[in-house]
Write the structure tokens for this entry.
Amino acid sequence: MTEVSGLTFPGNKVAALRAFTIADPGPTEVQIAVKASGICGSDLHSYDSDSGLRAFGADDPRVLGGPRTGRLLIGGHEPAGIVHAVGEEVRDFAVGDRVLAYHILGCGNCLNCRRGYPVVCTSGERAAYGGERDGGHSPLLNVEQRSLIAIPEELSFVDGAMIACGAGTAYSAILKSGVTAGSRLLVTGLGPVGLAVTQIASDMGVEVIGSDLNTERASGARKHGLHHALAQSTGDAATAEIMELTNGLGVEAAIDCTGASSARTLCIEASATFGRAIFVGVGRQPLSFDPTVQVITKMLTIRGSWVSSQAQMQELTSVLARRDLHPEALVSETFTLDEGPDAYNKFAGGASGKMVFTW
Ligand SMILES: [Zn+2]
Ligand SMILES: [Zn+2]
């Protein structure tokens, strides 16, 4: 048992450091000395909510379905660090190993877990780090060994934290989009995920066309491999610009990282015949389009993508190391955990860019 200070979300737009007792790792758990922990847009749901980030039920974070009336949990779902201690049954990792955690723990046995996608685990055991159990905004974190992925020595801990969520999400969407060298890819939304798509896809030889409401963000994406920033982020003018760039054909694939219906519509309308539109950005707005014109006669594939498989995340660590590509380059600011309340205040206030806690 060790006393630590972890960052919590008690509710109503507050981030607060609290003292916690971290148990020694269980038999199949690994205790990580966290070295990097990303701040992510999806943290804002619990940061903004009235009830904050709490365990379900009483004190057991795995009692699902009840109101979140349990203890405050430590936030953060993008952890990377060094193995500090291992449980007695851990065989695959040892003290000193550099690791990141796939941020959702699944049961390991259901069909979707066996497909490598704990994010869609169908059992009641599904628990996100920094969601239903303690997360990475803490100097120490206990993680089940099956959530861990080794970080190659060529990559930094910040690279690892980026892979744990945004870059892993980006890579999976790129694979699902089926782009190859020479393909034209539209990326709508150039936040951390859209920039990671840009960085990785352009390195593959894909010509990336990007759009963002923030034109500064779009032009800044050039240094991460963006070939062309659209003058208008959505609408008929954006579609026309893409058609002009592609000799009237449209793009082979499009990845929406916004969740906004205007951007999703652009992805559909700007896609070429046999194109693929991949939806990654989460948004609840309904979407209206003509399936006959935009899907059937265009033979368009529309596909959703949520995080990545564990295999894809592991493969990405190797791809980035061999290609000397560093998602750390997409980070705009780093903070110490003591600066956590200010960092979240700044992030929730609309500051763009990617922020990461480092130790
Ligand atoms: Zn995230
Ligand atoms: Zn499962």
Q: What stands out?
A: The pocket of zinc ion (ligand 1) is lined by residues 40, 42, 77-78, 165-166 (CB under 6 Å).
